[in-house]
């Protein structure tokens, strides 16, 4: 795994090995023997109802063709049966982020059907966008949030309790995710939505328009390329040109990453971040604040990690005593932030 440039791909292979071994040893034995070696599994597990998520159902004979030309990921992977659960995004024609979503195939014999796990506050606008692009495609779009709900299984020793759960397609270390009928009562102890937010902050992963600015964010700056949210081998889709050009010919100078604040200070979303003892020009801003003095920040990498090295001294709100430490997630591609060296 250490020699594999793509940590995400490597961990998927580990996760699949875990699935196979769990069938013989039981999920907890598998978790302790394999997943624990990377340090993201410890002593307990937690389940969140993820109440800020809604579920759309898309169905029809033209479903995969319709979504293939609209979303950033490769729908042929679901159509062919190679994947049942996928993370993807929708961009505007200028290549800016609009929505992200999780796609779960229902594998119905009568017609292709997908359940789409989306941020609740974006449902009306997202539905209008889907209808606008649908044109004459044979695809039905309906909100089934009163029938289905989203659940996430995360935290220490998060093991897969049943076949209904899917490894989070962004990062295996985030745990498991599923879409189930609302009457389903399976899987573990409830945890607050904020605990799950803190778990994502710990690993440097944002989701939804509150955390990823809708209409202005570049998907690569929010790490969708490292979270298996973009296919660079599929054909054209809305917003593809800028995304592909940035990937192959450009340099991603800013990225989203976790930061830790020194004791005795508070953070809020939107706070500008500065280099301590240097220019008064902001190098980024706080995007999301969590517990344990940690947050997600959108930062210029050359300032956060000078010459790709140790974290720089940063501060917020023109207050040099409010010291911030940028944290480089373990799953990051080692070349990120070093493209210009």
Automatic annotation (TrEMBL):
Chief localisation class: mitochondrion
Keyword Mitochondrion attached: yes
Keyword set, alphabetical order: Mitochondrion, Transit peptide
Signal peptide: none
Domain CAF17 C-terminal: from-to ranges: 253-333
Protein's GO biological process: iron-sulfur cluster assembly
One GO term describing the cellular component: mitochondrial matrix
Domain of life: Eukaryota
Keyword Transit peptide listed: yes
Location of the protein in the cell: Mitochondrion
InterPro entries: CAF17_C, TrmE/GcvT-like, YgfZ/GCV_T_CS, YgfZ/GcvT
Name the record gives this protein: CAF17 C-terminal domain-containing protein
Lineage: Eukaryota, Viridiplantae, Chlorophyta, Picocystophyceae, Picocystales
């Amino acid at each position: 795994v250490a020699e594999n440039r793509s940590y995400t791909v490597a961990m998927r292979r580990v996760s699949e090995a875990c699935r196979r071994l769990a069938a013989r040893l039981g999920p907890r034995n598998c978790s302790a023997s394999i997943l624990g070696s990377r340090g993201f599994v410890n002593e307990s597990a937690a389940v969140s109802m993820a109440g800020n998520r809604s579920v759309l159902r898309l169905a029809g004979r033209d479903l995969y063709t319709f979504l293939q030309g609209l979303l950033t990921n490769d729908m042929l992977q679901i159509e062919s049966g190679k994947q049942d659960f996928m993370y993807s995004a929708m961009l505007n024609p200028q290549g800016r982020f609009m929505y992200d979503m999780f796609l779960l195939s229902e594998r119905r014999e009568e017609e292709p059907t997908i359940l789409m796990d989306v941020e609740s506050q974006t449902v009306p606008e997202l539905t209008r966008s889907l209808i606008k692009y649908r044109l004459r495609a044979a695809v039905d779009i309906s909100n089934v949030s009163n029938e289905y709900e989203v659940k996430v299984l995360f935290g220490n020793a998060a093991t897969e309790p049943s076949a209904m759960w899917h490894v989070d397609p962004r990062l295996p270390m985030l745990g498991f995710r599923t879409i189930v009928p609302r009457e389903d009562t399976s899987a573990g102890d409830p945890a607050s939505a904020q605990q799950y937010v803190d778990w994502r902050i710990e690993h440097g992963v944002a989701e939804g328009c509150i955390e990823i600015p809708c209409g202005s964010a570049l998907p690569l700056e929010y790490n969708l390329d490292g979270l298996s949210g973009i296919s660079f081998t599929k054909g054209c889709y809305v917003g593809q040109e800028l995304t592909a050009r940035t990937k192959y010919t450009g340099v991603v100078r800013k990225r989203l990453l976790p930061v830790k604040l020194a004791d005795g200070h508070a953070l809020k979303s939107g706070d500008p971040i500065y280099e301590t003892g240097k220019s008064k020009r902001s190098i980024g801003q706080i995007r999301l604040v969590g517990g344990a003095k940690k947050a997600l920040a959108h930062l210029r990498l050359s300032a956060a990690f000078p010459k790709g090295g140790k974290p720089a001294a940063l501060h917020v709100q023109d207050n040099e005593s409010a010291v911030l430490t940028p944290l480089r997630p373990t799953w990051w591609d080692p070349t990120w932030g070093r493209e210009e060296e």
